Amino acid sequence: MVTRRAYRKWRALVEDLPLPEPFTVPDLVAAVAARRGRPIDIGTLPGGASAQTCGVWFQLVDRDVILVEENTSSFHRDHIVLHELGHMLCDHRGGADEQGRGDGIAALARLLPDLSPDLVRRMLNRTAYTTDEEQEAELVASLIRITAEARAQRATPGVLGNLAAALGLDRAAR
Ligand SMILES: [Zn+2]
């Protein structure tokens, strides 16, 4: 359950983001990386890496890595990246959306050749995110898109209110 306090907090966080105009997800990734002072690499999650994971964020020593499911639409890919950015911006510690599947570890290790398979396994086996963290990441992803659209239209459409109402937070949104 997303509380009103959390909603306000994440909305303020999104308002403060350097949202590129015109908005594109790759430009936002670059802007967030610049602000964090470390690169964010976007890669493709190898097929079969994990049957239940469409995206994953790894926090490495010198950079962040977001891997996105291969066989999906560009809109869905963008959303997955925004969702993983949401985890990053909310400072979630989970490290992997779902438990890793053993058969994907070798593939991931090939994709990230400077990481040992053992390290990849340990990252994938870290505690999965809580339901609240998943909802927060989803909320931030939605807020980013809505806020970018609102700025592009140079007006405040009702979509923020609609989102808040959908979350049962309509009074908090105003
Ligand atoms: Zn997630």
Automatic annotation (TrEMBL):
<protein>
    <recommendedName>
        <fullName>IrrE N-terminal-like domain-containing protein</fullName>
    </recommendedName>
</protein>
